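Let us work through a complete example step by step.
Step 1: write down the sequence.
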Amino acid sequence: MKQTKKSTIESPPLPVELKAGSSIARIIEVHEATLRRWAREGMPVHLLGPGLVRYNLDEVLAWRANRPAKGKGERVTRYGVEQSK
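Step 2: predict the structure and record it as C-alpha cells.
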C-alpha cells in the first residue's frame, strides 16, 4: 500500500473579539469618557470605519495595568506624566 503525504493546512488566526466602548466601560467599571481619554493617551483602539471605534478587552486591561502612575497634580499624556499647571 502506497503512503501519501498529508498536506498541512494552516488555520487562519482566531478573530480578536472587539467590543464597543459602552461594553468595555461597563466591564471595567469606568465611564466611556475615560476610555476616550485613555485612547488619546495611547491605549490601543481599533478603528473599523469613520467614527466606529472598538476595543479589545485584553489590550485595554494590559494597557491599564502598565500605564504610568498618576499622582495628584499630574496628568498622563502620550509622552509621559507631566505636572498640571
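Step 3: interpret the result. The two ends are 82 Å apart (CA to CA).
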